[in-house]
């Protein structure tokens, strides 16, 4: 199966005057009080600078968003939804490759994300005014989720996945513990008062499908898959976006895709459950990897070559972890044994490429 490349296109209106915000949405999307006011009575904003408003909504087949999480559908495929956020997406503006400051003197500003009722639609608003009027050819670069300004240096953003994920049995979504780490970024060019920003998901979703083939209940306390995997991304903009992946632990140390389960995950006999984690893109062939699990059936560990688990399909070798995809490691458990097998890479959603226009 080919990797699905899913782009989100968000249209933005640019103000002609400082302190006023315009929007490309239809009147039905505006508050009633605003649509009923004559144009000459439009309320003035106290904020200084120039503003750009972003509004987005999903097409029928779209399955991905920014500042989002996913939930499993009936086929256990991840489907993405928008989440509310005031400060987890950052937007930069570049003119001729040089950053344009906001009125705060920062090169970046927070973007507020507001989901609509079905969570497949949202509105986005850059919080701060730009110090200069937006011009045709300006490039807007957005990165999410970034909370800590210490991760930003000039027009470079450093983002690392955690040493382990903490899962609580019964949490709202099977991927709630991943929300802070779904790294996305994209660029768009201002032209004739609008801009389209195409976002790309950078991590691979790695999920463990654990099947209990025993006659007793299985309680899983932790699970991990370790190897020479990347867990860090460095993103920058200088005329075009650059994204590089590496190991924050250094090349000599493995990175563990690990999930701890608070209270344990109960799996009855003959049933399967999924545990989700993330890993950054990594090219892999026959490197040594280690699988470990702690459970009511005991602590078990197995080391073997990567291509011994993921041998590839249709005569083509498995290339490792790729952005914007999910990979499943099947783990079949008995009290006396563990069996591992890997599935091929799957793109999010159905079909090949999506270009979703808003």
Write the layout of secondary structure elements.
Elements (H helix, E strand, L loop, with lengths): L4 E10 L17 H5 L15 E6 L10 E5 L5 E5 L2 E11 L2 E2 L8 E8 L5 E6 L12 E6 L7 E2 L2 E5 L4 E4 L15 E6 L7 E5 L2 E9 L5 E10 L4 E6 L3 E6 L8 E13 L4 E8 L2 E2 L4 E8 L2 E8 H4 L10 E2 L3 E9 L4 E5 L3 E2 L5 E4 L2
Parallel strand pairs: 1-28, 12-19, 15-25
Antiparallel strand pairs: 1-2, 1-14, 2-8, 3-4, 5-6, 5-7, 5-9, 7-8, 9-13, 10-11, 11-17, 13-14, 15-20, 16-19, 16-22, 17-18, 21-24, 22-23, 25-26, 25-27
Number of helices: 2
Termini distance? 28 Å
Largest beta-sheet details = 8 strands, antiparallel, barrel
Task: Provide the spatial order of strands within the biggest beta sheet.
Answer: 1-2-8-7-5-9-13-14
Using the CA coordinates, give the radius of gyration: 23 Å
Structural class estimated from helices and strands:
mainly beta
Low-pLDDT runs of 5+ residues are 1-45, 55-68, 348-358
Task: Give the number of domains.
Answer: 1
H/E order of the elements?
Answer: EHEEEEEEEEEEEEEEEEEEEEEEHEEEEE
> Total number of β-strand segments?
28
Percent in strands:
over 45%
Mean pLDDT: 75
Roughly how much helix do the residues carry, as a percent range?
A: under 10%
3D shape: elongated
